[in-house]
């Protein structure tokens, strides 16, 4: 009987090599030794696998959604381990397919044996993210939610985790759906107007159209802003600490990270490599980069190592989200932020370097977001630690050596990293989503332009053009939730997931 079963089993398996409905397996918990591990199997072969691998006590049957104690056996009936079996029957499972979970002991050897046995029975080892991909393809979650799962797993701060959960629960998707709904409704009336264009009745007045578009634009903008914050919280902010040699950059890095990450010496030119440290500020993530002190390559005693360090520092400045410029208060304390920015990043210092190595350095003008000035070594003067805003730029007066004013700086950085705000309804988002929203906004603007022109010239609105733009808006919004996708996009998204998810 056993043999006959095996034959049928392999026949079943051979129906599917066309690549479509195969069953997958992976360890859903992290690999390594642990108390419990979960091997998850999803797909059409689940029931047969259960029959072959589970050895239940007499009189016990496997009931969906009930944890059942069972032994797990190999092909010869030898017990590999004992644990719990958990069955979910399609469509009420994470993937929407039948799922069997084997909760075994967290031994890499046991996990390996179980997976080998399952593979022997015709199952394929899952690609990274394949479970979530199936959940998406079977309509259990949309794309933004699937991405939120990965973001939750990868969350590097408490706030990032909170946001990811909200996206997983559909906070982001729902807003996008509402937008799509709004656009669709308008599109329907605009297209109706096209159909009846010959009949000389105005089905939709330009003014009405203008108002409707403005309303959509407003909702879109609100969603964009929330998504931007979501991206910020998800990705964290990277801030590069720069300044002349010996001003206390590495001391500051150590202060903020709470460890002696960087070497500090009284010698100018101590730091050469770019040092990256992840810092968590009360729930938000910040990546800090310490760099070599900026100086003219024309200056004496700059050796080849330091020169390379300075080149790398400029490269980091050019791609920084936020520049923390450290200056020695006793030397440059009187200079205002804009003057410093001018001198360092537009003037001589920058030119000296960019001519030499860094090529095309594009450093955007200073804003509250991308520039913070830190006046260090106030302990050597009468200046007390403090923080103020000058010309809309945050300035903080500190002593890195004595840890004075560091809390003030933390508060500024935390604000910059998106913390400190009420975040009711915040959700995680990705750059991909921002791009789609931006694209949608562009098309919406085009539609608004068409209508505006008609209103100004008192002409009929070119409804076909408006309809076309609205179609594009709908399409690009659909990319966020995955209503519109390409295989390529899905491949890229899910390949970033960890295996077993
Ligand atoms: N008095 C005083 N000295 C400081 C302060 N911060 C740093 N220093 C000292 O300044 C010297 C240089 O500090 P670093 O942190 O190595 O400076 P850096 O900017 O990283 O220097 P390079 O890596 O060489 O560019 C050390 O002797 C520090 O102890 C401060 O707030 N007050
Ligand atoms: Mg240093």
Provide a quick synopsis of the model.
This protein is α/β, with parallel strands linked by helices. 47% of the residues lie in helices and 17% in strands. It contains 17 helices and 14 strands.
What does this structure look like?
With 501 residues, the protein is an alpha/beta fold. The protein is 47% helix and 17% strand. It has helices spanning 2-14, 46-53, 108-120, 130-137, 143-154, 158-168, 171-195, 206-235, 249-257, 304-319, 329-332, 337-346, 348-358, 406-416, 431-457, 463-481, 487-495; strands at residues 24-27, 34-42, 54-55, 68-73, 79-88, 99-106, 124-125, 237-243, 275-281, 284-290, 322-328, 371-376, 386-390, 393-397. Strands 3-4-5-6-2-1-7 form a seven-stranded mixed beta sheet. α7 (171-195) packs antiparallel against α8 (206-235), α7 packs antiparallel against α16 (463-481) and α15 runs antiparallel to α16. The model is unreliable at 10-18 (pLDDT under 50). Bound molecules: guanosine-5'-triphosphate and magnesium ion. Guanosine-5'-triphosphate binds next to α9.
């Amino acid at each position: 009987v056993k043999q006959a079963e095996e034959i049928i089993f392999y026949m079943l398996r051979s129906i599917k090599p066309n690549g479509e409905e195969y069953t997958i397996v992976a360890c859903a918990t992290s690999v390594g030794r642990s108390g419990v591990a979960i091997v998850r199997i999803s797909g059409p072969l689940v029931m047969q696998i259960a029959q072959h691998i589970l050895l239940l006590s007499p009189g016990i049957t496997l009931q969906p959604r009930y944890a059942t104690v069972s032994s797990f056996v190999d092909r010869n009936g030898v017990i590999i381990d004992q644990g719990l079996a958990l069955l979910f029957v399609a469509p009420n499972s994470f993937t929407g397919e039948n799922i069997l979970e084997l909760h075994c002991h967290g031994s890499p050897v046991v996990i390996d044996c179980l997976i080998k046995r399952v593979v022997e029975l015709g199952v394929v080892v899952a690609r990274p993210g394949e479970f979530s991909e199936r959940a998406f393809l079977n309509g259990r979650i949309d794309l933004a939610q699937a991405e939120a799962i990965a973001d939750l797993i990868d969350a590097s701060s408490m706030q990032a985790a909170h946001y990811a959960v909200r996206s997983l629960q559909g906070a982001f998707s729902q807003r996008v759906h509402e937008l799509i709904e709004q656009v669709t409704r308008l599109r329907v009336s605009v297209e109706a107007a096209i159909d009846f264009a010959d009949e000389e009745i105005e089905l939709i007045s330009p003014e009405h159209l203008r108002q409707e578009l403005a309303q959509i634009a407003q909702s879109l903008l609100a969603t964009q802003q929330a998504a931007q914050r979501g991206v910020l919280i998800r990705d964290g902010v990277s801030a590069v600490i720069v300044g002349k040699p010996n001003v206390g950059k590495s001391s500051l890095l150590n202060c903020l990270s709470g460890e002696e990450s960087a070497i500090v010496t009284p010698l100018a030119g101590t730091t050469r490599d770019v040092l990256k440290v992840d810092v968590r500020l009360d729930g938000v993530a910040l990546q800090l980069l310490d760099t070599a002190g900026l100086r003219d390559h024309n200056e004496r005693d700059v050796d080849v190592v330091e020169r390379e360090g300075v080149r790398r520092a400029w490269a980091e400045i050019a791609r920084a989200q936020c520049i923390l410029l450290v200056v020695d208060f006793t030397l440059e304390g009187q200079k205002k932020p804009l003057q410093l920015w001018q001198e360092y990043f537009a003037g001589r210092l920058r030119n000296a370097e960019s001519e030499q190595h860094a090529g095309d350095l594009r450093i955007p003008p200073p804003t509250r977001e991308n520039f913070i000035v830190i006046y260090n070594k106030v302990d050597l003067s009468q200046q007390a630690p403090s923080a103020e805003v000058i010309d809309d730029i945050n300035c903080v007066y500190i002593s890195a050596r004595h840890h004075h004013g560091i809390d003030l700086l933390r508060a500024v950085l935390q604000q910059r990293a998106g913390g400190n705000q009420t975040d009711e309804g915040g959700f995680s988002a990705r750059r991909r989503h921002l791009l789609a929203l931006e694209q949608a906004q562009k098309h919406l603007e085009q539609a608004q332009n068409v209508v505006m022109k008609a209103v100004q010239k008192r002409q009929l609105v070119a409804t076909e053009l408006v309809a076309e733009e609205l179609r594009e808006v709908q399409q690009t919004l659909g990319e966020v939730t995955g209503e519109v996708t390409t295989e390529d996009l899905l491949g890229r998204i899910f390949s970033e997931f960890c295996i077993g998810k």
